[in-house]
Design a protein that fits this description.
By secondary structure, the chain is α/β, with parallel strands linked by helices. The protein has 26 helices and 19 strands. Helices cover about 40% and strands about 20% of the residues. The protein is globular.
């Protein structure tokens, strides 16, 4: 069983979305893109407990908080009288039609396919057929189509504001209607058979081993149809447990004095013999207070499990999930950010174990160790525009970027770009290290004028060479990213191709970044830097006194140790006027592009090369 398609309308920050899911997927994107909203939408339509909360939705669940129909105010009488009568009548008719429209509603539609025999038998009247190639439910399929299609059901959730009740309501139902046009409710028991579990890692862990309704332990008990007798036995034991120590001057003596005073003012029928007990003696109260204790370290001391480390709690959640999956055999897991407080090897373990335990997994993540486990096919980049339309994109590797190169360099090169809003492609490691560092330095020296690249949502990646910049730019622009590059001067043809492939091209005139840095800085900055470092033994034979041949000594040093980021070390110790003008102007060009000071249809021109 798996979710093959999800449509969302007017839910939280998403005005509209149509998503197709593979068997196992990880949703990626910038913060506030809508990844968690997708999982919350799935929980509303398929979660056994979410839609049964009262109310199931509230004001903040509606897109832009709009849940009441807005009717335009009529024009003032003087203006209406001056207008043509036919025009006024037409406007009145338009207002009347608007009034007849329904108020904004939340609508979530999900298609669940690959049904088991048990599910097909239960949902028999609502079973349809899903075609993976077309990505849709087949209308009146032929026998040949059914042979290759997957049995599925379509279910929907609608949430709305009830004006008469002055409250919010919601219902879940099968999208397919019966012959009379009536829709059938998709009840809690139906949802339990579908087996959708949504795990908000931090919040789930805080009550994983409690007996609260909907906790993981409670789910396991229900799946195994366990009927623990602890309620009656525990309530009876607690009813005889009194908190009175019997010591003179203690709690028991105080309670007895209260009882004596009480007898002076009220008859015993009103109340007598006050006692303190550890529980309200109801099942619901026990559900809230009963919790598991675990030993910490090698000692015998027991502490509540939620006092353990966050990583331990999350691994405990994984252990409980394995129990749930073993009990159901057909589970869809949706999980937010499994990497929280978990080391990389454990992140991979969680992903792979959960995938083995379930028929489908849908994760959200910002961790390269999690994302790389899904490959290109299972990674779903999401982006959302200003109108609230959530778009699903597909990673397509250019011909010049081989799948092996992508896998080998995923953590160090590609992942950060996939997770960012904007990408700065540098032609080498020197530029990739230097640009973020010098931008932070400029922001510190002139905070009112310069911003860091991080604050602009720009990540800097080493493209490896100028020849790979265009290919990588195509990869990221196809995913909706804004792409900038920084490189040495190129010939006219390459420059034209770069300007067509990128949003901003930053190009200097020197043959090498180090030459540009030294040509644009000052002697004082170089002398100060030489004095601050230990001159390498490998260069002492050639430059026994580097200050005597300062320019050549610095050029040789920066070139020989460029892989260690020494150009960035030099730049961050410079004062404002000592930082090359080209770098300062390049940082301003990036900043203007990112903050929208330039017209989007006319982005900044390439920075002029130094001559």
């Amino acid at each position: 069983m798996r979710i093959s398609k999800l449509s969302i309308k007017n839910f939280r920050g998403v005005a509209k979305a149509d998503l197709i899911f593979p068997s196992h997927a990880v949703l990626i994107g910038d913060n506030n893109t809508g990844k968690s909203t997708v999982l919350e939408a799935l929980d509303l339509v398929l979660g056994p407990d979410r839609a049964h909360r009262m109310p199931p939705v509230d004001e903040h669940d509606f897109f832009q908080g709009k849940y009441i129909l807005s009717v335009p105010e009529p024009k003032p009488a003087a203006v209406a009288a001056a207008n043509d009568a036919d025009v006024a009548a037409e406007e009145a008719e338009q207002v009347a039609e608007l009034v007849e429209e329904t108020a904004p509603v939340i609508r979530i539609d999900a298609t669940v396919c690959d049904l088991s025999d048990e599910q097909k038998a239960r949902f028999f009247a609502n079973v349809e057929w899903w075609d993976d190639e077309q990505g849709c439910v087949l209308e009146q399929p032929s026998a040949e189509q059914i042979a290759t299609a997957s049995p599925c059901i379509r279910v929907s959730f609608i949430g709305w504001y009830d004006v008469e009740e002055d409250d919010f309501s919601g219902e879940t139902f099968f999208t397919k209607t019966d012959d009379d046009g009536l829709r059938q409710s998709f009840r809690k028991k139906d949802k339990q058979i579908c087996g959708f579990l949504y795990l908000r890692t931090l919040r789930t862990g805080s009550r994983a081993l409690s007996l609260e309704r909907g906790s993981l332990l409670d789910i396991i008990l229900r799946l195994q149809e366990a009927r623990p007798k602890l309620w009656e036995d525990s309530l009876e034991a607690l009813s005889s447990l009194q908190l009175s120590d019997g010591v003179e001057g203690g709690l028991g003596e105080v309670l007895e004095s209260v009882n004596t005073a009480l007898k002076k003012y009220v008859p015993k029928e009103w109340g007598a013999q006050p006692q303190l007990r550890v529980s309200n003696l109801t099942r619901e109260h026990l559900r809230k207070v009963v919790t598991a204790f675990m030993s910490t370290g090698e000692g015998e001391h027991l502490a509540p499990y939620y006092r353990q480390g966050t990583g331990t709690i999350n691994m405990l959640v994984l252990a409980l999930l394995s129990q749930i999956a073993a009990g159901k055999q057909n589970v869809i897991f949706a999980m937010e950010e499994p990497e929280i407080a978990i080391p990389p090897y454990a992140q991979k373990q969680i992903v792979n174990e959960v995938r083995k335990l379930s028929s489908q997994t849908i994760f959200t993540s910002h961790s390269p160790y999690v994302i790389e486990e899904f490959g290109v096919e299972g990674t779903i980049p999401l982006s959302r525009d200003a109108a609230g339309v959530l778009v699903q994109r597909k990673i397509v590797l250019p011909a010049s970027i081989k799948p092996k190169f992508y896998r080998q360099n995923f953590r160090t090169v590609f992942c950060e770009g996939l997770l960012s809003r904007r990408v700065l492609l540098a032609e080498g490691a020197t530029e990739a290290i230097a640009f973020p560092a010098v931008a932070r330095r400029l922001s510190k020296l002139r905070p009112g004028e310069f911003k860091t690249l991080e604050s602009l949502g720009v990540c800097t990646l080493d493209a490896g060479s100028e020849s790979k910049i265009i290919a990588m730019a195509g990869l990221y622009r196809d995913l909706g990213k804004e792409v900038i590059c920084a490189c040495d001067a190129q010939d006219a043809a390459v420059t034209a191709n770069m300007e067509a492939a990128l949003d901003v091209v930053l190009m200097h005139g020197e043959k090498g970044f180090e030459k540009m840095v030294l040509a644009g800085t000052t002697v004082a900055a170089m002398e100060r830097y030489i004095a601050s470092i230990t001159w390498p033994e490998a260069l002492k034979a050639q430059f026994p006194n580097p200050n005597a041949d300062l320019a050549n000594a610095m050029q040789t040093y920066l070139s020989k140790y460029k892989g260690e980021g020494v150009a960035a070390d030099f730049l961050v110790q410079c004062e404002f006027e000592e930082i090359p003008e080209w770098i300062r102007e390049a940082c301003l060009a990036i900043q203007k592009f990112c903050v929208g000071e330039e017209d989007e249809a006319n982005p900044p021109a390439p920075v002029e090369a130094n001559t």
